[in-house]
Amino acid sequence: MQMRMALRHEQEVVQRLSLGLAAHIAQRSELMDQAGMRELEVRALFGQLMAVNPSVEVYLLDEQGRVLGHDAPSGHLHRDKVDLAPLKALLAGGALPILGDDPRSASGRKVFSVAPLVVQGKPAGYVYVVLVGEQRQMLADDLASSSQWRTTLWSVVLVAVLGMLAGLVAFYWVTRPLRELTRRIQSFDIDAPTELPALPALRGDERDELLILEHAHAQMAHRLGEQWQQLRQQDLQRREMVANISHDLRTPLASLHGYLETLAMKEATLSVEERRRYLAIALSQSAKVGGLARALFELARLEHGQVQLQWEVFALPELLQDVLQKFELSAEAKQQRLDASFPQGLPLVRADVGLVERVLTNLIDNALRHTPEGGHVQVRLFAAPDHVRVQVSDNGPGVDPALRATLFHAPAALGPRRGENGGLGLLIVQRVVQLHGHDIRLLDTEQGATFEFALPRAKPAG
Question: What is the pTM of this model?
Answer without folding.
Answer: 0.48
